[in-house]
Amino acid sequence: MIPMAEGHPPPHALLRPGIAIPFLIVALIWGSTWFVILGQNDAAPASWSITWRFLIATPAMFAVAAAMRRPLRLNAAGHRLAVLVGVTQFCGNYNFVYRAEEYLTSGIVAVMIGLLLVPNTILARVVLGQVITRRFAIGSAIAIAGIGLLLLHEARMAPLGGQVWLGVLLALAAMLCASISNVMQANETGKSLPTVSLLAWAMLYGTACDAVLAWFIAGPPVLPTSAAYWWGTAYLAIAGSVVTFPMYYTLIRQIGAGRASYNGVVVIVIAMLISTLFESYRWSLLAGIGALLALAGLVVALRARKPLT
Asked: How far apart are CA 139 and CA 258, in angstroms?
């Protein structure tokens, strides 16, 4: 989600099976997780649903690291980074996302999170010294205009007083948390650590944070009895977290963060289609134009090449 560095494979590298297959797998899974999250909101407090998700995902990620024979011992700097990633990505980000879906459709939340590349690139400029390109700035402006139209459509079709905009604020907070995590894990400490090892420890710290937050906000643990709830939780934990995060970060290493984040465009399309099929999302001319602008802006931004001069 950072402008592409020199020396990465040409665009047609995305067509290679070793890249295209995991790229599509990640997009399909992440595009579907938004709807699964929505289905869990009525069964248990959001904070406990998140805790159960990562309580399942954490030992699975440690098992993956062990199976891949990646070292699990981190130095002090590595643990500090894992705490930061855990608190922002696996606690803050998900707690805000789950709550945003109480006020907005899953497709709308997915579109907003799809603009993660905007704060990512700004923070990368400040923290890592990455350049911001003119084309990226133009694309971002187009995409933000599209998001605005989608949100206006949402407010008109489901007037919930100020609650729609509360959902917007929660989604923006989720995006900021994820952005901090994504950028900081790309620093020198992060690059020196195996991805799965960093993710395993980050999930452990994030899960502890989730449990404390859940008890503070929602009280003692809530264990739903619905089999569908636990199947959904297992899907989010294993497919939506353990499978996808290592694959996505491997893609970043193979083709660069900029090209890897094309994945976000596909995720948005899948999430909006699922929202249309299962949430009775009603399209209008305003929403259609907004969606096209959002996708067009993302594509323009992600195709940025030359540094801003």
From this structure: 13
Q: Are 86 and 206 in contact (CB under 8 A)?
A: yes
Q: Tell me if 294 sits within 8 A of 268, measured CB to CB.
A: yes
The tokens describing 228, both together, are: 């569908």
Question: Alpha-carbon distance 265 to 33, whole Å?
Answer: 15
Report the alpha-carbon distance of residue 98 to residue 90 in Å, rounded: 12
Instruction: Average the pLDDT over each of 127-141, 201-215, 233-247, 294-308 and give the range with the smallest value.
Output: 294-308
- Cα gap 159→115, rounded to integer Å: 24
Using pLDDT thresholds of 50, 70 and 90, give the confidence band for residue 125.
Answer: confident
- Which of left, alpha, beta for 256 (phi over 0: left; psi -120 to 50: alpha)? left
Identity of residue 296: A
3-state class (DSSP) for residue 243: helix
Q: Which of 170, 167, 172, 186 is nearest to 119 (CA)?
A: 172
> What is the reported pTM?
0.80
Helices marked H in the chain — which ranges? 17-40, 46-67, 76-85, 94-100, 106-113, 117-128, 134-157, 163-184, 188-191, 195-218, 227-234, 244-255, 257-260, 263-278, 285-302
pLDDT value at residue 262: 66
Q: In terms of Cα–Cα distance, which of 298, 296, 309, 267 is closest to 106?
A: 267
Residue 272, Cβ density class (10 Å: 0-12 exposed, 13-18 middle, ≥19 buried): buried
Tokens matching residue 143: 């995409």
| Pick from 190, 167, 202: nearest CA to 38 | 167
Q: How far is CA 25 from CA 148, 220, 251, in A?
A: 29, 36, 12
Q: How far apart are CA 258 and CA 137, in angstroms?
A: 14
